[in-house]
Amino acid sequence: MNDENTNLTVGEILRNARTMGRRKREIGTIAKQLCIGEEFLEALENGDYKKIPEIVYVLGFARNYAMELGLDPDEIVNKVKDELGIEAENDTPVTIEDLAERDKTAEYKAKLQEIVRVSIDYVRRHWLWFAIGAGVLVLAMLIVIIFGGSNNVAPDAPVAATAPVVAAAPVVEEPVYNIPVRERFGKENMAKSHVIIQAVEDSYVGVEDAKGKVIFGRSLVAGDVFYVPNGNGYKAKFGNAGGVDIWVDGELAPKVGANKTSKKDVSLNPDSLMKKSK
Fold first, then answer.
1. Which residue of 125, 145, 168, 239 lies most exposed, with the fewest beta carbons within 10 A?
2. Measuring CA to CA, which residue among 276, 207, 267, 271 is closest to residue 233?
3. Is 167 exposed, middle or buried (0-12, 13-18, 19+ CB in 10 A)?
4. CA nearest 220: which of 179, 249, 184?
5. Model pTM score
6. Which of 11, 98, 88, 110 is nearest to 54 (CA)?
7. Which residues, 6+ apart, have CB-to-CB distance to 256 below 8 Å?
8. Where do the H-state alpha helices sit in the chain?
């Protein structure tokens, strides 16, 4: 191959040989003589090898085209291999998909290089603002470290999670009953109940809330205890008023009625119970 063709691509060499030699010919004429599609010869001259179905056809068409144009076919074929990245002594086929992937990779690299170039150029033109922003960020971090870590906590000491402080409900101690407790009712109110009813004799006990709804009603056996919910408005009905003890905050309240007599609409308000005379 002439030295002047050393830096030319295969396509440029083929096009020059066809258009600048002593026998200038149209590509369509050569295509008919070689029985090769005109679009394939154009692909060779444009270096667009993806348009030729298989690499074996690329090399075969290049060889025949070079011979028709009076060029060294071996040198043209080897140069095609160089452009396709095929070792000269290795005829390993390269598919069209390989060529497409290679072009796509090159396109991605070119786009990435362009993005990097534009980014570097932008930073160079606005370096002062970037420097100020970095300085502000560093200053903010120092402030957080200095003032946020001023609790004198050892670096390696585990920091306990701070739970919201909830005031514990006061626990009402049970009174010293006059007779042993047999069974407890309303135990859900046990820890907070200020009014406790204990049957010292068998007696019916019914309790209503402020709306007249019965929340408890049953015959209690001597020793049974009922814990009245906290709040005003509760009223009681007793089948044997003298057969129950009513305790208010651990203190025995006056009897609400005589033994073996019924009593209804008895206010269970702690103040009302303690004001009753014996």
1. 168
2. 267
3. exposed
4. 184
5. 0.40
6. 98
7. 236, 238, 241, 244, 246, 263, 266, 273, 276
8. 10-20, 27-34, 38-46, 55-68, 73-84, 96-125, 127-148, 270-275
The residue type found at 82 is D
The residue whose two tokens read 């009302």 is: 272
Cα separation of 102 and 125, whole Å? 35
Distances (CA, A) of 227 to 197, 230, 246: 7, 9, 10
Task: Encode pLDDT of 103-140 as tens digits.
Answer: 566 566 767 878 988 888 787 788 888 889 888 888 88
Dmax (CA) for the chain in angstroms is 143
Q: Write the pLDDT tens digit of every residue in 220-273.
A: 999 999 999 998 899 999 999 999 999 999 999 999 999 989 999 999 999 999
CA distance 76 to 17: 12
For residue 278, the SS3 value is: coil
| Beta-carbon count within 10 A of 134 CB | 10
Q: How far apart are CA 45 and CA 128, in angstroms?
A: 51
Domain boundaries, given as residue ranges, for the chain: 3-94, 184-275
